[in-house]
């Protein structure tokens, strides 16, 4: 039998016409075992989906899966969506996880969840949501749930996860499941889901169609044939049932397994024999299985029983008889009698928590009964349910879901319940659920003195999912009279953040400035607003009086000792501004160090993380990348510990990659930035983080010589087509111009860089370490306007020297050397190398070495050229700059020098001594140095290298002769 009863008995009612589905189930279970017929294999999980309209036997298949999995010793976890529980955040997830973890005390639970305890424990319903503190973002909670499920799959392997009625699952559970499901393939975890395809929400759309990522093909359950229905009928009434009778049973049930089974049971209860004379009775019984006939049958059980059934339908899943009795306003004896009647009528059955709860035999029955309740009575029952649930101590969230079904009455108690439930949802990482609850509380409505605070809570709930709505709510809240100054400051801070996140930097800066003037009577709040004003002004691309703002910031920062966070944020903003304006690096570093005394939190409740990030990057631009990395590691760990794994983590990951790029660790940089972009892509509203990641990734790909990949990335994200209103670094237009130059399109790059220069000059941002637009423009003009190119390069060198970072000076000198040429150019090349050797910019040093070597080769100084080119080649390989390494080899070949193949170290024919000699030669070391380390004469070195080159197929004559004249390396 293929019915969809909640408690089928597969041993006595076999599943009919489901061979294909059962074979797929057996195959999937086999894939979970680590041996098959004694042969070891790698366990492989995946997804199995059964779909079909109500009554097609989906639950029966999941029940069979449970039986077969347990028979093989597998761990079974399960959950079921509920039509009335869709608004309860993480309801499905809690059903799955709680049985495994709820029995643990806090110590064991903390040990199991580890660092994820504070992030996911509330979402899993294992602890009460905290009353205050940081709110985890949905991405962080989903990552935590990934970890928990992976841990369960590993510790309880093999695991089968059964999820029924997925179409009714809550949004938060569905969103997590859709992102986690592809990982099951790599675990010993089989996910089996069942759902009605026409009711599947958008969040679960991935389960409704074939998917390579999920490794599944949904099985659509077909209605039973007339033969199968006849078998079901004869199993109940006997083999004497006539064919015509069975045929009409099939027609009247439409082949629905649920209806066929229910009808056959009733036929058996009436002792019918399945003859032509029994047809009228059969039709009456079939009509009573669902729809109006079911309600008519229910009403025949008595008013008290009907009222109890109504209360049960309002409660939904896992029905407590005591709660249902209280809602129905009947005594315990009457409730027990009603329960027995409804069980006998196959309306209710024993719940999964045996002896404690009830549940409807089938969702069709629950839905039919619920929809038959008149509107007024239904609202009254939900109102009673909210009171009963609160009184039973089941939590505000459980009560609030009933309040969503009742009319607004201006109840202060209802508002309090809804706000508390929203707080729980928000601290569980479910802002959408919080938004629904707070919107309803606002409609109640609240008391006038509570309205501003409620609007603020609503704005916080919508910030991560709809920042434009946050702006609307906060403007409305700020218009309310008599707001507490601290609350008002929090509102303004959140408003400026929302404006900034929606690319409205000018409005954000203006709001903060206006509020600073308004808060004159509150010095600390005034400082806080001034700090926000300076931050958002610095990130505006259209700031009118940038220099005036810089002067005000400098005067204010110099007066502040840095005692509290407000003062430190202002001093940190001053450090960033000093760096951007190209003031001496020691001054910028001094401000940065002062801002860090006492700490700069990345997750402060009333301060953004823009200033801490900027301060960390000041160290990077000032040639102290290790310090910057330390600050980023600490800040990102702080974000992750609070469950902030969305745009904060995306930007932190991306900028960590940027630091590695500036150090010349290009492969590491690419991996880090790609991970940052991946996180940003999956987080709603993380557009600024995407801008950062795309620009840095393009720069990294260009440095690696992957121009085609950089172009593909730019086109995919339409990079270069849109100019954001926020300041992004590296500057998007400058990065796009670098791409154009790499593609050999200087005529297109030059006007773009000219506009960037005009914009930066207007702001007095003159630090080439932050934006080397002049260097790009000099390169673009080197052929069409060489004099202008030289002037731009010279000015960039001057600005770099004023700033004082060796990396910036060396990079500018290298460009000046390239556009100058001749003997003067050679001297500039040497200066560039000298500067970059004092900096952490390994890739720029390799570029300068190759550039110097190429210039020397063109001037005929081959021995010196070889020294530079070999060092540049070694540096390029070390950095992962394939394009630069290829250029070095070309330059060596053009100079008549054979570059040592890069794979010599993998050549098994070389001895250890030969390999070391080859490494030193590639590094450009002279023969005496090689001889000293290897304890050989110079003649011995020559013979050794001749052997090396002979073994790896490279002519040694030219290099062997050149070894004697190589200059000794500088100490």
Automatic annotation (TrEMBL):
This protein's record includes keyword Magnesium: no
Domain of life from the UniProt record: Bacteria
Signal peptide start-end: none
Keywords recorded for this protein, A-Z: ATP-binding, Nucleotide-binding
Record-linked SUPFAM superfamilies: C-terminal effector domain of the bipartite response regulators (SSF46894), P-loop containing nucleoside triphosphate hydrolases (SSF52540)
Any one GO molecular function term: ATP binding
PANTHER family assigned to the protein according to its UniProt record, in alphabetical order: TESTICULAR SOLUBLE ADENYLYL CYCLASE, TRANSCRIPTIONAL ACTIVATOR DOMAIN
Protein name as catalogued: ATP-binding protein
């Amino acid at each position: 039998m293929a019915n969809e009863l909640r408690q089928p008995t597969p041993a006595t009612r076999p599943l009919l016409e489901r061979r294909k589905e059962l074979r797929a189930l057996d195959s999937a279970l086999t894939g979970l075992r680590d041996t098959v017929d004694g042969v070891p294999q790698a366990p492989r999980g995946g997804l199995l989906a059964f779909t079909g309209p109500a009554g097609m036997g989906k639950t029966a298949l999941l029940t069979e899966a449970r039986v077969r999995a347990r028979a093989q010793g597998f761990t079974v976890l399960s959950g079921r969506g509920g039509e009335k529980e869709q608004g309860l955040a993480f309801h499905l997830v809690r059903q799955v996880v709680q049985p495994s973890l709820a029995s643990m005390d806090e110590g064991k639970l903390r040990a199991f969840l580890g660092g994820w305890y504070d992030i996911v424990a509330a979402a899993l319903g294992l602890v009460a949501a905290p009353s205050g503190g940081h709110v985890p973002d949905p991405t962080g909670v989903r990552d935590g749930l990934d970890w928990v499920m992976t841990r369960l799959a590993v510790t309880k392997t093999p695991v089968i996860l059964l999820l029924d009625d997925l179409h009714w699952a809550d949004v938060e559970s569905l969103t997590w499941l859709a992102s986690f499901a592809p990982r099951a393939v790599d675990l010993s975890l089989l996910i089996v889901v069942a759902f009605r395809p026409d009711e599947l929400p958008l969040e679960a759309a991935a389960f409704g169609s074939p998917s390579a990522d999920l490794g599944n093909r949904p099985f659509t359950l077909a209605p039973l044939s007339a033969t199968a229905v006849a078998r079901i009928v004869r199993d109940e009434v006997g083999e004497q049932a006539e064919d015509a009778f069975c045929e009409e049973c099939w027609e009247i049930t439409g082949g629905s397994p649920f209806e066929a089974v229910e009808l056959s049971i009733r036929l058996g209860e009436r002792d019918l024999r399945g003859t032509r004379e029994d047809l009228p009775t059969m039709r009456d019984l079939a009509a009573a299985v669902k729809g109006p006939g079911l309600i008519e049958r229910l009403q025949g059980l008595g008013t008290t029983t009907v009222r109890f059934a109504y209360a049960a339908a309002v409660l939904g899943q896992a029905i407590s008889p005591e709660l249902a009795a209280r809602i129905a306003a009947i005594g315990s004896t009457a409730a027990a009698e009603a329960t027995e009647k409804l069980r006998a009528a196959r309306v209710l059955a024993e719940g999964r928590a045996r002896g404690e709860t009830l549940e409807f035999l089938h969702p069709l029955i629950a839905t039919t009964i619920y929809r038959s309740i008149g509107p007024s009575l239904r609202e009254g029952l939900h109102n009673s349910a909210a009171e009963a649930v609160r009184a039973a101590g089941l939590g505000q969230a459980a009560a609030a879901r009933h309040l969503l079904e009742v009319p607004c009455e201006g109840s202060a108690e209802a508002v309090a319940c809804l706000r508390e439930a929203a707080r729980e949802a928000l601290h569980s990482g479910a802002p959408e659920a919080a938004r629904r609850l707070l919107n309803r509380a606002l409609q109640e409505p609240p008391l006038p003195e509570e309205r501003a605070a409620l609007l603020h809570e609503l704005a916080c709930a919508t910030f991560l999912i709809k920042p434009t709505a946050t702006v609307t709510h906060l403007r409305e809240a700020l218009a309310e009279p008599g707001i507490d100054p601290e609350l008002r400051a929090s509102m303004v801070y959140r408003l400026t953040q929302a404006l900034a996140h929606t690319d409205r930097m000018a409005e954000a800066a203006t709001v903060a400035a206006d509020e600073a003037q308004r808060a004159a009577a509150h010095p600390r709040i005034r400082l806080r607003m001034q700090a926000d004003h300076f931050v958002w002004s610095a990130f505006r691309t259209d700031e009118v009086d940038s220099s005036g703002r810089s002067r005000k910031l400098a005067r204010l920062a110099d007066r502040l000792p840095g005692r509290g966070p407000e003062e430190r944020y202002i001093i940190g903003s001053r450090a960033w501004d000093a760096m951007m304006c190209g003031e001496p690096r020691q001054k910028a570093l001094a401000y940065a160090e002062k801002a860090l005394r006492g700490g700069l939190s990345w997750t402060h409740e009333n301060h953004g993380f823009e200033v801490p990030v900027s301060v960390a990057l000041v160290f990077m631009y000032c040639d102290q990348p290790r310090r910057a990395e330390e600050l980023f590691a600490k800040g990102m760990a702080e974000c992750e510990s609070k469950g902030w794994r969305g745009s904060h983590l995306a930007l932190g990951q991306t900028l960590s990659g940027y630091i590695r790029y500036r150090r010349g660790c290009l492969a590491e940089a690419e991996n880090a930035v790609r991970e940052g972009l991946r996180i940003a892509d999956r987080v709603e509203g993380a557009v600024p983080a995407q801008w950062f990641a795309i620009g840095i990734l393009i720069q990294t790909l260009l440095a690696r010589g992957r121009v085609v990949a950089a172009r593909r990335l730019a086109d995919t994200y339409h990079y270069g087509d849109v100019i954001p209103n926020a300041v992004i670094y590296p500057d998007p237009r400058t990065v796009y111009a670098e791409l154009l130059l790499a593609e050999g399109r200087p005529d297109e790059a030059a006007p773009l860089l000219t506009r960037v220069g005009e914009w930066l000059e207007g702001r007095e941002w003159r630090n080439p370490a932050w934006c080397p637009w002049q260097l790009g423009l000099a390169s673009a003009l080197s052929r069409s306007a060489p004099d202008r190119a030289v002037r731009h390069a010279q000015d960039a060198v001057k600005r770099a020297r004023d700033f004082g970072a060796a990396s910036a000076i060396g990079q500018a000198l290298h460009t000046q050397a390239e556009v100058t040429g001749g003997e003067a150019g050679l001297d500039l090349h040497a200066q560039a190398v000298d500067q970059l050797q004092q900096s952490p910019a390994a890739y720029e040093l390799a570029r300068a070495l190759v550039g110097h070597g190429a210039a020397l080769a063109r001037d005929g100084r081959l021995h010196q050229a070889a020294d530079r080119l070999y060092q540049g080649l070694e540096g390029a390989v070390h950095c992962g700059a394939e394009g630069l390494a290829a250029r070095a080899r070309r330059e060596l070949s053009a100079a008549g020098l054979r570059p040592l193949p890069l794979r010599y170290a993998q050549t098994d024919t070389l001895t250890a001594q030969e390999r070391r000699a080859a490494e030193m030669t590639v590094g450009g070391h002279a023969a005496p140095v090689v001889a000293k380390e290897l304890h050989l004469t110079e003649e011995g070195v020559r013979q050794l290298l001749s052997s090396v080159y002979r073994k790896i197929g490279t002519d040694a004559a030219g290099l062997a002769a050149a070894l004697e004249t190589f200059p000794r390396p500088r100490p």
